[in-house]
């Protein structure tokens, strides 16, 4: 095969019948070499992952296939849409074998978080996410989220038991929760409370959590009473928010006008 194809002016590539990564002793053996066209060479490497045995050999053959796309020669344009799809699937299979279930280091997690900070999704990306969530909801997933298995739930609960948050994260969470509850209407609040009560039925609560819940319930009852008899701003006559109920005005601008009026 080497002698027949080396005579012409056509473009050929050297291919090892038994790959070098599997047997290095046959690397320089001419009986293990064959000249192929770029298309033939690519098809051979496309088929090799299917014929080898073992995960390590499978990964080696996929790596050899991936390296073919980095060629700088103009004659080596091997990809079509179908072959490109096949190669990408093989790469994803390889990555699943290598990285599935591997825990990420703290440095790796920090790099991922930095890269995602300040990232804004395009409207097209958001539409795609919305469509995928709708499809998940149609399949029966609650809250557009795939439900966890019992084993996964146990692992998550064990991790969260000893989890400690920084003061900055605690302040951010408290602010976001306050906004969520304060901007809620009475109907939404009652629906939310009924859902929480159904989900927490039969749950054993510690004394510490009972004290915290009692404080929260006192604030909520006060908020409901306030909404029945709200306090209005003395300047613009608009309703003052529950968190600002001790103030006489709804904003700083109204408070300044009130101060000037008292001075005059």
Key structural traits:
single chain; 58% helix; 11 helices; mainly alpha; 264 residues; two-stranded antiparallel ribbon
Polypeptide structure, described:
- With 264 residues, the chain is mainly alpha-helical.
- Helix content is 58%, strand content 3%.
- Strands 1-2 form a two-stranded antiparallel sheet.
- The radius of gyration is 33 Å and the shape is elongated.
**Average predicted local confidence, pLDDT:** 77
Tally the helices.
11
Structural class: mainly alpha
Approximately how much helix is present in the residues? 55-70%
Q: List low-confidence stretches.
A: none
Distance between the termini: 107 Å
Report the β-strand fraction as a percent range: under 5%
Give the spatial strand order of the biggest sheet.
Answer: 1-2
Give the tally of β-strands: 2
Supply Rg. Answer: 33 Å
| H and E string | HEEHHHHHHHHHH
Summarize the structure.
With 264 residues, the chain is mostly helical. The protein has 11 helices and 2 strands.
Write the layout of secondary structure elements.
Blueprint: H1 2-5, E1 13-16, E2 33-36, H2 38-51, H3 55-67, H4 81-99, H5 106-116, H6 123-138, H7 150-161, H8 167-182, H9 186-199, H10 207-228, H11 252-263
Antiparallel strand pairs: 1-2
Helix pairs in contact: 2-3, 3-4
């Amino acid at each position: 095969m080497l002698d027949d194809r080396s005579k012409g002016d056509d473009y050929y590539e050297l291919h090892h019948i038994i790959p070098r990564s599997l047997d290095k002793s046959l690397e320089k053996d001419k009986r293990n070499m064959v000249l192929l066209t770029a298309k033939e060479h690519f098809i051979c490497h496309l088929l090799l992952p299917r014929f080898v045995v073992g995960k390590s050999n499978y990964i080696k053959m996929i790596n050899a296939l991936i390296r073919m796309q980095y060629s700088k020669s103009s004659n080596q344009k091997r990809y079509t849409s179908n072959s490109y799809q096949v190669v990408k699937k093989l790469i994803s299979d390889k990555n699943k074998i290598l990285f599935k279930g591997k825990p990420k280091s703290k440095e790796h997690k920090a790099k991922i978080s930095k890269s995602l900070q300040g990232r804004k999704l395009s409207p097209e990306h958001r539409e795609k996410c919305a469509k995928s969530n709708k499809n998940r909801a149609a399949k029966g997933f609650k809250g557009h989220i795939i439900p966890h298995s019992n084993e996964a739930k146990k692992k998550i609960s064990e991790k969260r038991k000893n989890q400690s948050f920084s003061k900055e994260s605690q302040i951010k969470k408290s602010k976001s929760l306050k906004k969520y509850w304060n901007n809620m209407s009475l109907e939404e609040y009652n629906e939310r409370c009924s859902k929480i009560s159904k989900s927490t039925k039969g749950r054993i609560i510690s004394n510490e959590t009972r004290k915290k819940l009692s404080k929260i319930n006192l604030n909520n009852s006060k908020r409901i009473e306030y909404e029945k008899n709200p306090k209005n701003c003395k300047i613009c006559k608009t309703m003052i928010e529950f968190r600002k109920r001790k103030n006489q005005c709804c904003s700083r601008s109204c408070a300044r006008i009130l101060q000037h009026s008292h001075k005059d």
